C-alpha cells in the first residue's frame, strides 16, 4: 500500500471523510490513497494517479463539505497568501500530519508514505517520530517529496542550456524550502558551458520556484498542477520500485547518513521495500559546497522543530 499526504489545512471541527474507491484491473495489486484529495494538489494528483496503470485501487480522502469545513478552507486560503514561508505553515500542518500519521501507523503500517505537506523539512521528521512511538517506523518507507524542485531545475536548466528538456537530468539535494533546496547543476546532463552568473541565477530561481508561483497566483494558492505532476512522477517511481523494476532512482528527502543531518534529500534508489540505497552526493563545485554548508543550520533547526513538536 502506498500513501500520499497532501495537507495544508486544519479541520479541527467535525472531520468527516469523503471516501471513494476507484478500482481498475491491473496486476500486481497496488493501492494508492491520497489524503487531502479535494485540495488544489489533491484533485489533479487524483486524476493523474487514476490514469496510472500501476495503480489497481485508488482511495481519496478529504473532509466533508460542511459550513464548518468551508470556514476552515477559507482560513487555509489566507494561509497560502504571498508573504508566508513554508515554515509559517508549521503550526497548522504539524498537527494534521501528526494525526494522519497516527492513523497511518494504525491502519496501514506497511504503506510507503510520500509527504507533500509543508514544511516538508519538518513534517517528515514529525512522521518519523510518530511512527517510532507507534513501534512501526521503517526509514525505508518514509519520503519527503522534493520532486517539484527537480522538475523546476530541469525546466529552468533546459531553457538556459538550450537542450531538449526531456533529456535533462539535475539532482537536487538538501531539503524543500528556500536555501535548503540545492540543485547540483555541475552534475546536470546534457552538459552545457553555463557561466557562474547563470548558474547562480538558475539556483536562485529553483530555490524560489514556490514563491514565483505563489506570487503569480496573487493570493489564490501555491503550486498545484506542477506539484500534482511531480507527486504523480514520484509515486510512479515508488510503484515501479515496489514492482521490482531495476535502477529506479529519484531525489527524495529521507532519513540519511550521507551528511551529519538525520534527514537529507539526495538521489535514492527505490526498490521492493522502498528506499534501497541512499546515493552519495557525487562531486560538488565550490559554489555547491558553499551552498551545502549554508543550508545545514536551517535544515537542522527545521528537523529539530519537527522532532520537538512530535514529542510534546
Ligand atoms: N512538497 C512540495 O513540493 C509542495 C508542497 N506543497 C504543500 O502541499 C500541501 C497541499 O497543498 P494544496 O493542495 O495546494 O492545499 P489545499 O488547501 O488546496 O488542499 C489541502 C486539502 O487537505 C484537506 N485536509 C485538511 N485537513 C485534512 C485532514 N485532517 N484529513 C484529510 N484531508 C484534510 C483539505 O480539505 C484540502 O482539500 C500544502 O502543505 C502545500 O504547502 C505545495 C506545493 C509543493
Ligand atoms: O511554496 C509553497 O508553499 C509551495 C511549495 O512548496 C512549492 O511550490 O515548492
From TrEMBL:
Q: Where does NAD(+) bind?
A: 36-42, 62, 93, 116-118, 227
Fetch the Gene3D superfamilies from UniProt: Lactate dehydrogenase/glycoside hydrolase, family 4, C-terminal, NAD(P)-binding Rossmann-like Domain
EC number of the protein: 1.1.1.37
Broad class of the protein's primary localization: mitochondrion
Question: What GO molecular function annotations does the UniProt record carry, in alphabetical order?
Answer: L-malate dehydrogenase (NAD+) activity
Residue ranges of every copy of the Lactate/malate dehydrogenase C-terminal domain listed in the record: 146-309
Family to which this protein belongs: Belongs to the LDH/MDH superfamily. MDH type 1 family.
- Protein name in UniProt: Malate dehydrogenase
Q: What is the protein's species of origin?
A: Brassica campestris (Field mustard)
